[in-house]
Amino acid sequence: MQISVKINGKQESGEVEPRTLLVEFIRYQLGLTGTHVGCDTSQCGACTIHMNGRSVKACTLLAVQADGQDILTIEGVAPADGPLHPMQEAFRDNHGLQCGFCTPGMIMSALAMVERHNGEALDEKTIREELEGNLCRCTGYQGIVKAIEAGSKAMQGGA
Amino acid sequence: MYAFEYKKVSSLDEAQQAFDSADDGTFMAGGMTLVPTLKQRLAMPSDVIDLGGIDGLCGISVDGDTVTIGAMTCHADVAASEDVQKAIPALAHLASLIGDPQVRNRGTIGGSIANNDPAADYPGALVGLGATVHTTKKEIAADDFFTDLFETALEEGELVTKVTFPVPDAAAYRKFPNPASRYSVVGAFVAKTKYGIRVAITGAGPTVFRVNEMEQALTSSFTADAIADISVPADNLNGDLHATAEYRAHLIGVMAKRAIADCG
């Protein structure tokens, strides 16, 4: 089946089978490998992307469900040759990652969280509650929570 | 994943036709249960019929004493709805406890109740509030809709279109979530309505159920103390690696008491 999506501002299309997962289409057909597959069972959130502005797990959607939709992946949050997004910068500054495997999903979830709260700076309780859908096996989350707190504050600057 | 046919339909009639012409069709709402099920081959339907393109199945409205939620409305929308928060805050709260944000952005009320997972949250709200399920074939009281483990009063090819909830005088939901999956190990939905007190328990048994003895005790005195001596037998409750049947039986009392306290 032919599908077409707007991804990181660019129109892309491709031929997929009904069983092709959205994350497979993004990684293997579009070559955007920043979106990771940690568990493939909807638990870990490493594959988190935004579809029409909302965070979703790309391993739990069929590619055909994304036909005609607007998608944002980690590659689209900041220009490839420009400075990092303030949320990415905050992860670097606050030791928000060790191996980095979960980081793209963490950042996409963090950005969705800021959006859900109308761009306000986030507190620790909110972050811990709403980070429920993302697992990290390295950091123990302390650095991630701090990073999201700092990132959401940095985004107040109008970034 | 194994190969299947995918059909995106744009009306309930088309959905019905697609279902009738398939060897072994299944409907997909948000897909939050179905896609993992397909991956594991726990179900292997020949055709997946995507309801995502049908207009008019999404949305929330409040009219007098009734809150109406379209079948394809996602949990995040119910949780964030100011109308629901105002009319039935317990329902918005319950929706905010389902899964995680990513799941709440896709999972729908219609999909959840049609699946009737014993550990799902929504069955607690529907039975706890005395809701009515509207389908392509009938209107049915929530009390009669959830029949058994993963079983409902839906016939082959029948679809949920919306759920209507009467606004209660007070209501609260408390759940003891599985720490990993966030499914309810036990959830208690307690409501004071003009048709009486309702206590619905989800997570504990094969399907949601009411505790009549608690409802009667609360009718005389709506306090947590009133049900302190009431215990639900563990005989027919679920026992698994997360919690024994006896533990679930104990949690029913604890969660119900907390929900009563939350009703204020």
Give the secondary structure arrangement, pairings included.
The complex is a heterodimer of chains A (159) and B (264).
Chain A: E1 2-7, E2 10-15, H1 22-29, E3 48-51, E4 54-57, E5 70-72, H2 86-93, H3 103-116, H4 124-130, H5 142-154
Parallel strand pairs in A: 1-5
Antiparallel strand pairs in A: 1-2, 3-4, 3-5
Helix pairs in contact in A: 2-5
Chain B: E1 5-8, H1 12-21, E2 25-28, H2 34-39, E3 47-50, E4 60-63, E5 66-70, H3 75-80, H4 82-87, H5 89-96, H6 101-104, H7 109-115, H8 122-129, E6 132-135, E7 139-141, H9 142-145, E8 146-148, E9 151-152, E10 160-166, E11 170-177, E12 184-193, E13 196-202, E14 209-210, H10 212-220, H11 245-263
Parallel strand pairs in B: 1-3, 2-3
Antiparallel strand pairs in B: 4-5, 5-10, 6-7, 6-10, 8-9, 11-12, 12-13, 13-14
Structure notes:
- The complex is a heterodimer of chains A (159) and B (264).
- Chain A is α+β, with helices and mostly antiparallel strands and 159 residues long.
- Chain A folds into two domains: 2-75, Beta-grasp domain (Ubiquitin-like (UB roll)), CATH 3.10.20; 86-157, [2Fe-2S]-binding domain (DNA polymerase, domain 1).
- Chain A contains five helices and five strands.
- Chain A has helices at residues 22-29, 86-93, 103-116, 124-130, 142-154, and strands spanning 2-7, 10-15, 48-51, 54-57, 70-72.
- In chain A, strands 2-1-5-3-4 form a five-stranded mixed β-sheet, sandwiched between helices.
- Chain A is globular.
- Chain B has 264 residues and is an alpha+beta fold.
- Chain B folds into two domains: 5-49, 2-Layer Sandwich (Uridine Diphospho-n-acetylenolpyruvylglucosamine Reductase, domain 2), CATH 3.30.43; 60-263, Uridine Diphospho-n-acetylenolpyruvylglucosamine Reductase, domain 3.
- In chain B, 33% of the residues lie in helices and 25% in strands.
- Chain B is built from eleven helices and 14 strands.
- In chain B, the strands form four sheets. A five-stranded antiparallel β-sheet of chain B has the order 4-5-10-6-7.
- In chain B, a hairpin with a 6-residue loop joins β11 and β12.
- The longest helix of chain B is centred in the last third of the chain and has 19 residues, at 245-263.
- Chain B is globular, with a radius of gyration of 18 Å.
- The model of chain B has no long low-confidence stretch (mean pLDDT 97).
- The chains are: A alpha+beta (159), B alpha+beta (264).
- The interface between A and B is medium-sized, with 29 and 28 residues.
